[in-house]
Specification:
This protein is α/β, with parallel strands linked by helices. The chain has 11 helices and 10 strands. Helix 10 runs parallel beside helix 11. It is elongated, with a radius of gyration of 21 Å.
């Protein structure tokens, strides 16, 4: 096992993964840690090339293709290329991504929201989804486009605000603390958002619910105010309670407030397990901002991880 912390970026040679590679390179350079570039080949296809076509698959040729992809992404003369480390694996992409992240002691995985198959509005890459369900380290999910060249100095102007969806469970405080550290590091406003969902039942339709709804909103506002007071003083923090479908309302808040970053927690109900729930899934489908996904084991990252989003690109302003 490699004890040196690193950043991992799986690529599938698509434009989206080129964008993820740019983010990953900027973050790894800023943190002065290695960047591991990974590609995963399907074992059936590697066997088919050997048996069915007479073309022999080799790990070396695959690594050469990765180097060419990196050169096209950054430019053949870019100093970034000398800092890249390449990994070629054969197997299931999500499984191999998690294995390499574990063996290389990765502090962060940077990957594109959508796979090589494309990106419809409500389509989320299956590999990214599986990684999010099982990861033990934070994952930065990037938009499905190549943002072009990026500079660290543009981070504050481009990101503008950080939105943190909170459900006011015990997991909300450590999630908000990570976001607050990022907001402090980048000098950005922080918006904590809680969504009150409509009551949906046949009985609710027959009851006078104005008082019930007012009570639910008051409880949410009190809980959000308590969460805000638990965060470091001196930050520009806003608590916002909205009403409606959680994923749609959160995506709307991020869009209306021009937020370039969402910090979400990867937890669900005890019945569904300790990973990504339906709200997180749909939010990742709907949002075009960067999403930093925090698994339950990554609630208190070391200081070296705090500026990991100082590499935002100008594409987020569009």
């Amino acid at each position: 096992m490699n004890a040196c912390p690193s950043v991992l970026c799986p690529v599938d040679f698509s434009d989206g993964s080129a964008g993820a590679l740019r983010y990953a390179a900027a973050i790894a350079g800023h943190l002065s840690v290695p960047l591991v570039v990974l590609t995963v080949e399907d074992p059936l296809l590697t066997e088919a090339t050997d048996v069915g076509t007479g073309v022999l698959w080799s790990r070396g040729e695959c690594e050469a293709e990765m180097q060419s992809f990196a050169a096209r992404t950054f430019g053949a003369e870019s100093p970034v290329l000398a800092r890249l480390e390449y990994e070629v694996a054969v197997g299931t992409p999500a499984t191999e991504t998690l294995r390499v992240a574990r063996e290389r002691s990765c502090m962060l995985i940077v990957m594109n929201a959508h796979g090589l198959a494309g990106s419809r509005k409500l389509f989320f890459g299956s590999t990214t989804e599986r990684v999010l369900r099982e990861t033990a380290c934070p994952v930065l999910v990037t938009p499905p486009l190549d943002p072009g060249e990026m500079r660290l100095d543009d981070a504050r102007r481009v990101l503008r605000r950080i939105v943190v969806p909170v459900d006011l469970t015990p997991a909300s405080l450590p999630q908000a603390q990570v976001a607050a550290r990022l907001a402090e590091t980048l000098g950005l406003p922080l918006i904590l958002v809680h969504v009150v969902e409509p009551l949906k039942s046949r009985l609710a339709a027959r009851l006078h619910l104005e008082g019930v709804e007012a009570d639910r909103r008051a409880v949410a506002e009190d809980g959000l105010a308590e969460l805000v007071t638990a965060l470091p003083q001196g930050l520009q923090i806003e608590g916002l309670v909205v009403y409606g479908d959680p994923s749609e309302e959160l995506a709307k808040v991020a869009r209306d407030r021009h937020a370039g970053l969402l910090v979400v927690g990867l937890h669900a109900s005890p019945v569904l397990g300790p990973r990504m729930g339906s709200v997180t899934y749909r939010l990742l489908c709907l949002s075009h901002a960067l999403v930093l996904a925090l698994p339950p084991t990554a609630v208190a990252p070391p200081n070296a991880e705090l500026p990991l989003l100082a590499a935002a690109s100008g594409s987020l302003a569009r």
